[in-house]
Please model this.
Amino acid sequence: MGKEAAMKNKLDDESVIAYLKANPEFFDTHPDALPPIEQGNGVVDFQQRMLERLKSDKSKAQRLQRELIENVRANMNNQSRIQTAVLTVLEAESFEEFIEVVTQHLPVVLDVDTINLVIESTSKEIPFINQAGIRFAKVGTVTKWLSTGDALLQDNINGHEELFGPGAGLVKSHALVRLEISADTPAGIIAFGSRDPEAFQPNHAVDQIGFLAQVVERCFRIWLGIQA
Model:
């Protein structure tokens, strides 16, 4: 074989390899292109390998499909819970009942273990004391937990007393959402705590609990007679 022919074959081989690397699904759709190779003595049966891969891909697709269905069902369930929570909050007939609904009734509706309204206070006499369902915290607590963000979800944690008070020992994951009641009121957080260490995870969406937090903000303004 001449030098030019050898170079041509080399280029052809390289082209084929490059094409197969760029199109890894080629043998999935063209299994007949694989030559029958007898298995034994460490020789790989490529056809058998491709059949196994096709079966694996099918199993993977079925698993992903099941996960998608489960996620859709979970999202629908969560959405239903949030809608019920919003209606429950709106049905409160007094400010005291509103606070009770958020801190005592919503944990049952949302299937979490505790919900706390954490409001910063400048008074040195009442930091971290639960008063009428509201936990007062030191100034700077909101920034400490949320920095400049609107929400924080953490899993596999130990609950913190400044957020959850005596119930902190139960909390193994939490979702913290900023409360912006008005420009003239202290900063706040609505804190959701669960004993399930994976109930709230950093990659979870926060749009639904964020919407609930906005409803709580507006209810605060209505009951306290203040503007945003």
In short: DSSP finds seven helices and six strands in the chain. The beta strands are 114-121, 130-131, 134-138, 151-154, 173-179, 188-194.
